[in-house]
């Protein structure tokens, strides 16, 4: 099984006809994703050839859903148009919207994530690599060939750390890997994924990757304490980051003692989460717990 994305998912790509959209649509198709259409109002009725497959272009998400039964969309549009794209998808009733775009103004993210919730649409992102259920479907930009299906669930703020842990634990494999994004406002949180992995019978252990800034990891720790019975292994990026300086992601800023890596590590360890000092040590903790050796 998996969370949010399976081999049955039918995926639209908003911005498929752009450079990034075309490149990653080709990679998603090669990974087995059932991409059923693109969305571009100016190119409705056309199709795009990807190797041996022609993918139709629709004028709107609603049109694409009516024609194909799509239940997910991946958003590759520029930041200025992201709010409209996600709002359109939510109004059409799409179940899942994966927003890859970075640089979206925070007030836009606040607006479209709140609107999507009222429509029952799950937003993953923005500023994220997407999510992958290895061997089934890949929605976003996660490399599909660095791991295999398995029994670990992964939720991460960081794209590159998602890839590293996927690779280091490739011999065991993953049920689903979700890159939630590192912006101050995201549609899907650590807690959302922890709840889903807790309910997934094929996920045996969860890896949680966080980073400095905000209190998402502390809130996740409280959720683990109260609701999660499966083992959780964590990693927090940013122990050497200077205070008061944004590092990489827009949400990775530390003020005083709030949002530090040390505080997050302490909160997680207090509820029984084993936290690695490096990504490799984190992978070793997972292997040790699962009895897979090193």
Summary of the model, kept short:
The chain is 35% helix and 24% strand. It has 294 residues and is of the alpha/beta class.
What would you note in describing this structure?
The radius of gyration is 19 Å and the shape is globular. The longest helix is centred in the first third of the chain and has 14 residues. The two termini are 26 Å apart. The model has no long low-confidence stretch (mean pLDDT 93). The chain has two domains: 115 residues, NAD(P)-binding Rossmann-like Domain (Rossmann fold); 145 residues, Succinyl-CoA synthetase domains (Rossmann fold, 3-Layer(aba) Sandwich), CATH 3.40.50.261. Helix content is 35%, strand content 24%. It has 294 residues and is α/β, with parallel strands linked by helices.
Topology:
Blueprint: E1 10-14, H1 19-30, E2 34-39, E3 47-50, E4 53-58, H2 61-68, E5 72-75, H3 79-92, E6 96-99, H4 106-119, E7 122-124, E8 130-133, E9 137-140, E10 149-156, H5 159-168, E11 174-179, H6 190-199, E12 205-211, H7 216-227, E13 232-237, H8 261-270, E14 274-276, H9 279-290
Parallel strand pairs: 1-2, 1-5, 2-4, 5-6, 6-7, 10-11, 10-12, 12-13, 13-14
Antiparallel strand pairs: 3-4, 8-9, 8-11
Helix pairs in contact: 3-4, 5-9, 6-7, 7-8
């Amino acid at each position: 099984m998996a969370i949010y994305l399976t081999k049955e998912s039918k995926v639209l790509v908003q911005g498929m006809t752009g450079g990034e959209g075309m490149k990653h649509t080709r990679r998603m198709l090669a990974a087995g994703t059932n991409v059923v259409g693109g969305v571009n109002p100016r190119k409705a009725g056309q199709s795009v050839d990807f190797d041996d497959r022609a993918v139709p272009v629709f004028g709107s998400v609603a049109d694409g859903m009516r024609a194909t039964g799509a239940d997910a969309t991946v958003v590759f549009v520029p930041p200025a148009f992201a709010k409209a794209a996600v709002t359109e998808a939510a109004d059409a009733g799409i179940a899942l919207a994966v927003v890859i775009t970075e640089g979206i103004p925070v007030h836009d993210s606040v607006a479209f994530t709140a609107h999507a919730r009222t429509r029952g649409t799950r937003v993953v992102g923005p500023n994220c690599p997407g999510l992958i259920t290895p061997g089934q479907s890949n929605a976003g930009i996660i490399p599909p060939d660095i791991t295999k299906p398995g029994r670990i669930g992964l939720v991460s703020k960081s794209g590159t750390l998602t890839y590293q842990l996927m690779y280091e634990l490739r011999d065991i494999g993953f049920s689903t890997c979700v890159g939630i994004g590192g912006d101050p406002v995201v549609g899907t949180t650590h807690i959302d994924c922890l709840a889903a992995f807790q309910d997934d019978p094929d996920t045996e252990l969860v890896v949680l990757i966080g980073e400095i800034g905000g209190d998402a990891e502390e809130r996740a720790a409280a959720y683990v304490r109260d609701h999660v019975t499966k083992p959780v292994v964590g990693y927090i990026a940013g122990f050497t980051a200077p205070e008061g300086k944004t590092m990489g992601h827009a949400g990775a800023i530390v003020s005083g003692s709030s949002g530090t890596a040390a505080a997050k590590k302490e909160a997680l360890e207090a509820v029984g989460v084993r936290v690695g000092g490096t990504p490799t040590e984190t992978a070793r903790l997972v292997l040790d717990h699962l009895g897979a050796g090193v």
